[in-house]
Amino acid sequence: MVEKMTSVEVEVQEEALRILRVELVKRLDPTDNVLDFLYKNNGLTEVMYERILAAENRLEQCRVLLDAVRQKMIVPLFVDALEHKGSHVKLAAMLMDTIYKVNHSGWTSKTTRTEIGKKGIKPNMYTQPHRLQIVDSKGTELANIGFELRRISHKGIKYLYQFDAIVVEMKGKYSHDPDVVFKMLESELIKGRLFLENGSEQWSKLKEMETLVATLTHSEAGSMIFLARKAAIVSMEGDLLNVMKALDIVEEARKKMGFIQPCADTARVMFVYVNILIQLYEHIPSRKRREMLIDSIREAIVEHFPQCPQDIRDEFCRIFYQKLACCYLGVGVYGRLFNAGVTEDDVKSAEDCLERIESGGVFDDRRIMLYNLAKAAVFYYKELHCPQRTGEFSSQALKHANIARRLSDKNSFGKELCEIEAVFRHIYSITPQTSPKPESASIQPENLVSCNALMPNTDDHDNTMDASYDDVREEEDMETWESHCNSEMLG
Known about the structure:
The chain folds into 3 domains: 7-125, Death Domain, Fas (Orthogonal Bundle); 132-308 and 466-491, no CATH class; 322-455, no CATH class. It is built from 21 helices and no strands. The protein has helices at residues 7-27, 34-40, 46-54, 58-72, 75-83, 89-103, 111-115, 137-153, 160-173, 178-194, 199-212, 219-235, 240-257, 264-283, 287-304, 310-329, 344-358, 365-385, 392-410, 414-430, 467-485. Helix 15 (287-304) packs antiparallel against helix 16 (310-329). The longest helix is centred in the N-terminal third of the chain and has 21 residues, at 7-27. It is globular.
């Protein structure tokens, strides 16, 4: 039973609700888990519950609910309701942050901040948790190694021998260092997600990670990463039930993020979180879920990745803009085109996102594949929205889909290949019969021109992905890894 709050605590909560009232009314959907959670946890009476449901529209439901929360002073329970099943996590964070700011604005007493810790109320609603600074030279070096391993695995199956050789050598050379072994296991799990590694192998590696958490230099961060990787494995099952389970697990990881300064580790948790939100959006497309997804992507770009080393920051920001484009277009994590009610404005927003990433550096094959898949979706919807379908846009869609298919087949991205074949069927269904359909079995180098902005400018290679280009990248990868592996920072 929660003790009676002091008058100052009541004032703090009332002021926070007043400040956020407009935003809460604008964005809150009480029927999405919030009302049921409050009712089941004795926050609302049956009469009040029915009264809110009977309100004429969502805005009125919000107003009545917020009045009830203020009158009954159940703000801590209300925050729990907002966080329940990830329905309104962003609003929950905004409310807790506002309470903290109000409490430290100068007009409330210090006793409030100490008394609150003695009660069964969320402690971080009144005292901002001390955020651990875990970035040091060793952590930065490990982040760079993880980034290089990730980039190698995303180049496709041809490079897995190189990935495996690096992991084996690092594990052998630094077998005494749990931080290094933990990073290698995390990298192996990321690779396993790409190539649909056997589930038992994934769980075995995860179990090994769990045994190392307590021995890490920063065990809090390790626990957070462990939960994120666990959520990623659960979400690979793909069905809605497992996606919801994965969301609950990654939410636990996000709670731990609140105690750690934004860095490469928190950024990777956000990456997993966004992927799971996209999977949820695939199952239950709605504007509200899409807005939640967009907010999370922007949070990752603005708050977490700026704290990473520059090359990691730049590449992941481009990846997130790519994910944002896919969000607007209704393209799933593995490339599935789903019905998301895509409008012409959505297509324009997606194009803006893709333009942002076109000015960057080199992308790995997987990202070029997904980039072209997104471009195919752009042209597909342009044809779909065109009053007079001439086939001009659908021919462009087929061209980009062909590039995506070539890269998925070349690199053994099996799950994506199946989804890309389905995208072809979508495009063919709206293509006028008189429009030429490119041969899928023979893809000419000129079809890769659309990748130019994502490929290096090399006069010798004619902007095609030939063997000599791959050899140059392979040498660069090995040189980069050797410099990391021999770094004194790892001890």
